[in-house]
Amino acid sequence: MGSGGRVSVVVVTLNALPWVQRALESVRGEETVVVDHGSTDGTLQLVRERFPDAVVVEQENRGLGAGWNAGIARGSGEYVLLLNADAWLLEGALDRLVACADARPRAAYVGPRLLNPDGSLQRSVRSFPTVWRLATEYLFLRKLAPRSQALNAFYAGGFDHDEVREADWLMGACMLVRRAAIEEVGGLDERYFLFNEETDWCYRLRRAGWSVVFTPEAEAVHVGGATHGGRFFREQVRGQLLFLLEHRGERDAERARRMLRVALRLRGLLFRGERGRMYADAARWLATAPARALVAAPR
Asked: Which residues pair with 121 in a beta bridge?
């Protein structure tokens, strides 16, 4: 079943083969906007040939949030489905997401249960970052008790992903967002280039009195990391510092920077190869300036 024009789908692409075809097939028949950030792998040719009804917007790559914002502006539906180019809805998922939102008038953001390509659960529920929650992740503390709230709050330890529940925020691989809520709180903050833009958005939505809802009644598959291949780890850390700076204050952002510098230096020693170099590079970057300067510096 289609949404009857109630949903606009936005997919942002950058060299999105081979998964983008499956993503677009899963929403065929819906108003769809593809925002491309300079693909050179044949993505645009595939979209234009196989999905001629999709609106294609080509723009400079100013980050995922900027791409989503451009697509939201071109759509007309009362709901917007933001779908990663490496994710696709399973049968009936869009109808179930809309039904969940319709039943909860203050639900601004509804996310499905995410699955890995092998069918296993991909844990998508998160709690807002704090210095302590980041420490439990980067210092391996959550490994001591993976399902405890105290040591695994960042990954919502104990959340079973089997019932409809409100959450702090949900991974943005697939999210249905109410346009009225977007119009009230604004679009995504484009200072987040990649990662954490949905964290900030959910925080602002919840602060304005809207809710963020997880529903296992709708399911989507998410490859995870396919579009960036793990190349932007430093950008992930930068986004976490920006979130803390904006919503927890400069003191917490500085405390987090110092903690992360130590944690990533340790990780750089523990891990071999490219992964260890990635952590060591981020640790050196964190040592170059205070949090506010790191967040503001050109990427």
From this structure: 115
Q: How far apart are CA 6 and CA 171, in angstroms?
A: 23
* Cα–Cα separations (whole angstroms), residue 104 to 30, 89, 95: 22, 21, 14
Question: Crossing angle of helices 273-286/250-270, nearest 10°?
Answer: 150
**How far apart (Å, rounded) are the C-alpha atoms in residues 189 and 139?**
29
Mean pLDDT for the chain overall: 93
> Which sign does the torsion angle of CA 212, 215, 221, 224 carry?
positive
**Average pLDDT of the residues in 273-280:** 95
Give the torsion through C-alpha atoms of 241, 202, 146, 248, to 10 deg: 40
The pLDDT tens digits of the residues spanning 148-191 come to 777 777 776 667 789 999 999 999 999 999 999 999 999 999 99
pTM of the model as a whole: 0.93
Is there a contact between 176 and 110 (Cβ–Cβ < 8 Å)?
yes
The one-letter amino acid code at 156 reads A
User: Does 18 sit behind a cis peptide bond, omega within 30 degrees of 0 on the bond before it?
Assistant: yes
